[in-house]
Amino acid sequence: MAREGEDTGMAKASKAKSQRKKKTKENKTRTVHANMLYDHAKGEENPNRHYANNKIKTTKYTVLSFLPKNLFEQFHRFANVYFVFIALLNFVPVVNAFQPELALAPVVFILSVTAIKDLWEDYRRHRSDKEINHMDCLVYSRADRRYVEKYWKEVRVGDFIRLRCNEILPADVLLLSSSDPDRLCHIETATLDGETNLKQRQVVRSFFDLDCDFDPLKYNSVIECEKPNNDLNRFRGYIIHRSGRRDALYKENLLLRGCTIRNTEEAVGIVIYAGHETKAMLNNNGPRYKRSKLERQMNVDVFWCVIILLVMCLFAAVGHGLWMFQYGDKRPVFDVLSPEGTDLSPIMSAIYLFLTMIIVFQVLIPISLFVSIEIVKICQVYFIHQDMELYDEETDSHLQCRALNITEDLGQMQYIFSDKTGTLTENKMVFRRCTVAGVEYSHDANARRLAMYQEMDSEEEECTSHGGTLPRRDSVTSHQSARVVLRSQSTKSHRRTGSRAEAKRASILSKHTAFSSPMEKDITPDPQLLDKVNDCSSQLDFMRFHSQPMSQLPSDLADIIDFFIALTICNTVVVSSPNQPRQKVRMRFELKSPVKTIEDFIKRFTPSRLTSGSNNSSSSSLITNRSSNKGCSSVLSSPSAESTLTKLDEEQPPGGLEHAFGPVPPCYDGKAWNLEEGELRYEAESPDEAALVYAARAYKCSLVGRLPDQVTVELPHLGKLSFELLHTLGFDSTRKRMSVVVRHPLTDQITVYTKGADSVIMDLIKPPDTGNSKGKRQKKIVNRTQNYLNLYAADGLRTLCIAKKILTKEQYACWLQHHLEAETSIQGREELLFQSALRLETNLHLLGATGIEDRLQDGVPETIASLRKAGLQIWVLTGDKQETAVNIAYACKLLDPEEEILTLNADSQEACALLLEESLHYIQAKFLCSSADQAAKAFHSNFAPFELYPSSSASSSSSSHAAPFTVHRLGLVIDGRTLAYALDKSLEDKFLAVARSCRAVLCCRSTPLQKSMVVKLVRNKLKVMTLAIGDGANDVSMIQVADVGVGISGQEGMQAVMASDFALPRFRYLQKLLLVHGHWCYSRLANMILYFFYKNAMFVALIFWYQFYCGFSGSAMIDQWYLIFFNLMFSAFPQLITGTLDKDVSAETLQQLPQLYVNGQNSEEYKPYMFWMNMIDAFYQSLICFFIPYFAYADSDVDLFTWGTPITTLALFTILVHLGIETKTWTWMNWLSITFSIALFFTVALCYNASCPTCYSPSNPYWTMQRLLQDPLFYLLCVITPITALLPRYFYRACQGTLFPSPVQVGRQLDKLPAETRRNILSLSRVKVGSPLSPKPPFLSLSKPSPQGCNKKDQRGFLKTSQGPVSQTDAEGGRSLPGAADSEKGLSDLYTLVPTEIDTLPYTKDVPPPSGESRPPSSKDLQCLNKTLDVSASSWITSTPLPTQTDSVQLNLPPDGDSQCAKYTRNSEERLHSEHAVHPARRAELAADQSLHTTL
Hints:
Blueprint: H1 12-26, E1 29-32, H2 66-74, H3 78-89, H4 100-133, E2 136-141, E3 146-151, E4 160-164, E5 172-178, E6 184-188, H5 190-193, E7 198-202, E8 222-226, E9 237-240, E10 246-249, E11 254-255, E12 260-262, E13 266-273, H6 279-283, H7 293-325, H8 346-360, H9 367-385, E14 391-392, E15 397-398, E16 400-401, E17 415-418, E18 425-436, E19 439-441, H10 444-457, H11 479-491, H12 500-512, H13 518-521, H14 527-545, H15 555-569, E20 574-576, H16 598-604, E21 609-610, H17 641-649, H18 654-661, E22 681-683, H19 687-698, E23 702-707, E24 710-715, E25 719-729, E26 737-743, E27 750-756, H20 758-764, H21 773-794, E28 797-807, H22 809-824, H23 829-840, E29 845-856, H24 860-869, E30 873-877, H25 882-891, E31 900-904, H26 909-927, H27 932-938, H28 953-956, E32 968-974, H29 976-982, H30 988-996, E33 998-1003, H31 1008-1022, E34 1026-1030, H32 1036-1041, E35 1044-1048, H33 1055-1059, E36 1062-1064, H34 1069-1107, H35 1120-1130, H36 1133-1141, H37 1147-1152, H38 1158-1161, H39 1168-1192, H40 1200-1222, H41 1228-1251, H42 1264-1268, H43 1272-1299, H44 1303-1312, ...
Parallel strand pairs: 17-30, 17-34, 21-25, 30-33, 31-32, 31-41, 32-33, 34-35, 35-36
Antiparallel strand pairs: 1-8, 2-3, 2-4, 4-13, 5-11, 5-13, 6-7, 6-12, 8-9, 9-10, 14-15, 16-36, 18-19, 18-29, 20-22, 23-24, 24-25, 25-26, 26-27, 27-28, 28-29, 37-40, 38-39, 41-42
């Protein structure tokens, strides 16, 4: 696109030179000048002329480029090139077989249909672009000396733009001025990342102190910034003023295109990036095009079709050559001379005929297949969109399909990689419990309140007496009950409110305020802690009244009040009033100190010192006018270290402190505060922050206002206090903490409050001096807090530590000076700021810790259980700490309490290598037979222990897996550091060998890059189909690497959705998307492709058989009109209908029997042999359709077409009835399409035969069909031929369905049964037995034949070995069974008891059943099942014998002196029977406590 303002008359050399210079500069940075300075200059003098303008164009084509560009794209498909080549070949007179124009028709039709579809899509994009480009905005005009309205497309880099409230930003703009007195601008980024909470942006520091409107005419600075990039969370640059001074620019100064201005009447900025260079446009890649696995398989078979075609042509050419050769020199009468009039030699005749036959047999390569597949996929996507079960009413969102061409891949997934937070959980944080000064407050009443949300939403009564609460540690009587409580509590998540109407209202409110559902806000305080807070506040009030020093307050009470102050002010929460949700509360509380001159002046004009990466939030504004003695045009320099130090050196006179302790409430002037603090609404950037502020408010410690330099808090008894905010160190993922530096209004001390991850904060705590009692007390508090943190993590809570530190003015002044130097440096700024923050945040005093619950989404455990049964391997890759992740994994049934856990934590490459080696040895020793050869025989199938259908095991071994492997009842937990070592080239194979043997893999503390590396490793090494699902920006790389990427449109924004192929509102919808729609899409397309190959081969073979009767001359007995349009028109519609609507099994059965999904995983519907079977069948059917009419009309006087037309008709009938045999679901549309096809054929035939007497002389198709319809023989042929042709296929289908039914056919038989019978059979197949947590196996099944070398005796011994020294505990009475294997002797001949992942039906009472209930199904029941389904029970689920004992395996490496071997310690049931029962997930915590202390 040519840019405006370029002078075309400019000399080429100088132009190239200047562009080269510009290019080298632009490689590193971008320089932006104000456009006004160059208004009257020539185009080439404007330094901004090389940057993109703001016009966006997302269309692919223009009017001129459409045809060439579209054809070029279509010819990327090899098939299209081939068909055009054939059509053009037909124009060569020597080899042509049909009328050239007629042969061109199909190709033109196919290309036209695709082109029209592309054109329509592009036109829609064009309309959308036009709408956006013609939106209005205010741009400053130098000529008019005011802001004038312009279209978005006319905006240029360097323009000044005025933005008004609720306006959308037209480009990426640097904020230079704001009407907000705090020089802030609030934006909503919902269109960019889906987040509804307000973000704050700051005016560039050097423009901060203007006291009047910004005047663009006085602007003369230059901006240097980074080149356009798609990182939404990064902006680096600096602004150079005329004085030569530089000021740093951060992402807080940049407003991004597509965001909406809120709470700010007016703002002015300069455009930095425009149009396609804006961050929003660079992030918008549109739908992605991938090739599906099925399409790749299909291309192989297309290649085989080409081979078959060439063989047939070669055969015909040789035949023709020999036929010509037998005449010798005598030319046959009918021989056609060459164009020169000479005779053709037999060899030349054969070569020409070879080319002619390629034209005649071209239909063998299915030209319409590719277009049909596209049409079917679009229809499939439409029907998936229309599925109301995939619509989420609460968020008003439904499934989006962003990649149109991989729907069938959904039916072939083998591995799922999932994020945890926001994907498996709600990302809806609820304050659960806390510990302050070493005392734990369990908040039981609050837990009961949360349970009420569950009860309101649940249709069943909860069975636990706790009402679904998380129990106190000391209140649980057994580890079993602790487990039950957690399961019942976590199995269902909670809607926001009880009734649907309330839910709707709450969701409308939450559109205004993020993270503010009643469940999150209305926290019930712990009575014990509430009493202490009130006691502390009243003591403080008393001391203030009597002017006593605050140091007299007992330390535990001081910690409590500091704890809640930290919760209230150490965050970036914005306060807004309820009646205008997006309007800030504006109120300032003035300190009535007599000294208000310099200190107040500096204070008023000191912005909060933000570090890069922090978002300083503000909610209150100045009411008082800014100092009027400043000139409007003056630009104050940014506050220097000196001015801040001057402020610190000012001694506050006695009056100030008297005021702080005076009888009058100190912190507000006489104005009425008419808003109840309960009515205030909090806008938080993260759900964790909102949860903590709401928790503090429950204890009457409310955040009521925030300025850049002041935070106002209301405390009980004390009223409102203003904390002077000296500095904010924002949260970042490296430091994992956030700090604020404030001047405490009660003590006048400079205090640092820090909150952050416990793994970080506990290392920064000042080591207690154990010499005195205070130090001992502090050490005890730290130890107790650590214990409580471990328990919180074991409960699956997210933990945060709160700490403080008191600084002297000298310490703060010294730190500030260094910090400001770090802030203004350009080189290595991040590292310097990190070091500076570290200097401040050391030797902290621990106040306490909080546990926040991230609730599981609805139906997650059930979904994971279903996907498991479907043979899918599920790995969770999360950034969360190990304990929290492990316990969420238990809650959502990813990890089973009855399986062993391998925990890998290493702190060096060598340690990691040793751990992996030992893990492999352990797995082999525990699970495999003695010899490797036997092991290979024993586990020949991909999912042997959970092999669902023994009949398919032989074929499944030939599926696309790299090598057969076994999945054991093991869980693998690995942390980020160990994962980094394991992903090294030298160790990745060992890591994969261990991981693929485990049923569940949990990677904790993993980075976005590690997530994508794990997915890539599994996909490339194991050659499996992978699906990645996540909801945040940190999941984007993983989503893009996987075969199918699924984004969850959740609370973390839309980045994941924008990068995904499919977007879901909830994780639970993945079950139906894969098990139902994925299965259907795969089954339909696989069958349609096979049918296409069959249909075309069958039709072409008819002409091939005729060649034996016409001297291989390339003639055809079928009229060329029928030849060309047979596939394109007559037989096209029925297969499209079947491909779109066919359902082999109903949705209900597919969800109740997830095992049927294995059908797609093993590519059962489209195996290589099926292609060849179809080809053989096609040749057989064509023989019947050719020879029955041949013998029927033999020795008669009919002409060629009177014999050829019945063959065409019979072929059509045979092909349609064949489709009928393969169709599983009949609808009125199937009947209509078949009727339409037959009617269309006869209509065209009758019209064509009636109107074309001399179309192709000498042959004459006139009245052929009319004569045939009067001939009884024709009708007899129409009955006999299709029946004879299809008898073998029908017989095969009938026998297979009766004698050897596939699982899918069994499912189809189930669908035909009455609903009641079907339910009974399904419940039998599930065999529901008591609690999913009981160690007793919940499933009984027939075992597979034992592998050689592992006889039944070995199997029993195998079970024993797996138990080791630990006795087996029975579910009912806790009795010890000395010989578990012996008790199975009676069944060992017939059955093997096998633990599987199949648990009870959703929401079954999670209590151990009475012994009578937990009987396994009797053999009578199984016989009943056999009879009903006519299929052996063993086809449902079969497994190798596996241990039922719950173990957690710790691999501990020995110290240096020992030999290099690993020791295994067992966390078994015995160990868990301690005086306090332990939570189910506690075993993971125990594992973590002793996790692999590695000393090599």
